[in-house]
Amino acid sequence: MTKHLVTSALLAGFIVACLATVLQFGFLERNIVLAERYESGALTHFAGVQQPDGAVHDHTDAAHDHPTDAQPFWARQGKTLLTMIITYCGYALMMVAGLSLARHFGKTVGTAQAMLWGLAGFAAFSLAPAMGLEPTLPGVEGADLAVRQVWWLFCAGATVAGLGLLAYGNAWARFAGPILLLIPHIIGAPHLAEFTGILPPEMAAQHAARSLGVGLVAWVTLGGLSRWFLDRNA
Predict the structure, then answer these.
(1) Could you give the C-alpha distances from 191 to 86, 115, 200, 206, 221, in angstroms and in order?
(2) SS3 state at 140
(3) Which residues in the chain come in under a pLDDT of 70?
(4) 3-class SS at 24?
(5) How far is CA 159 from CA 162, 200, 203, in A?
């Protein structure tokens, strides 16, 4: 029993990881590479800055030579794929365990419902945390990493619990569900006292929106594939 659950999760997670890697390359990679160049100083957001002496100093890429330590293309994409495999196989293990538990208690979960489970996973692990801590590019300053990670875990856990109560709880549980969904945002995500950054805000906004789009596709696919492999390996 355990073996087929793990096998189903690993297969679904691997396929979704490959899909997410392709989507990241197509929609996110360009902005990530550009952000790394801004972070290193190879590019600057504000060009032709007026100096106190009246001279205009050009800080564009063409005006200066900067050392680069860019990784080879295949090495970079290989690391991205490995990260995606670890991430989505972990998510798939949770998804398959949840689907199996639902069946154990007599809940029928079809393909469409499994995809809704994937949508719920997106809401819990991508959308809800992003309402406090948006996906960011390299070079963006933020609050202490450990504090952000704690808030992210708390938000994701509270959202999973809240959605679970709304979907499968009794009347009192369904009343508590929305409260759990709101608590992380009432507390608030950790942020710096003031905004700082070296990136064009348009690029940061595009990255955040596209990251959520990639996450949506990946999670819905993960829900459907987890259910399919779970049935196939039963």
Answers:
(1) 28, 33, 19, 20, 32
(2) coil
(3) 1, 46-70, 234
(4) helix
(5) 5, 32, 29
What is the structure's pLDDT at 62? 41
| Residue located via tokens 């039963």 | 234
Give pLDDT tens digits for 171-198: 899 999 999 999 999 999 999 888 777 8
- For 28, list phi and psi in degrees, rounded to 5: -115, -25
Q: What is the largest CA-CA distance in the chain?
A: 77
Two structure tokens written together for 138 = 């390299």
The one-letter amino acid code at 52 reads P
And the tokens for 103?
Answer: 């069946």
Would you state the structure tokens that stand for residue 197, as one six-digit string? Answer: 């950054």
SS3 of residue 50 by DSSP: strand
Among the listed residues 149, 146, 143, 177, the one whose alpha carbon sits nearest the alpha carbon of residue 163: 177
Q: Residue 33, CB half-sphere, CA atoms under 13 Å: how many? A: 15
**Which pLDDT score, from 0 to 100, does residue 92 have?**
98
The residue written with tokens 């994701």 in the block is: 156
pTM: 0.87
Whole-number pLDDT of residue 114: 96
Considering only CA atoms, which of 201, 204, 202, 181 is closest in space to residue 127?
Answer: 181
Residue 71 is given by DSSP the state P
Is residue 111 a contact partner of residue 12, using CB atoms and an 8 Å limit?
no
Q: Which two tokens stand for residue 98?
A: 């949840």
Residue type, 46: F
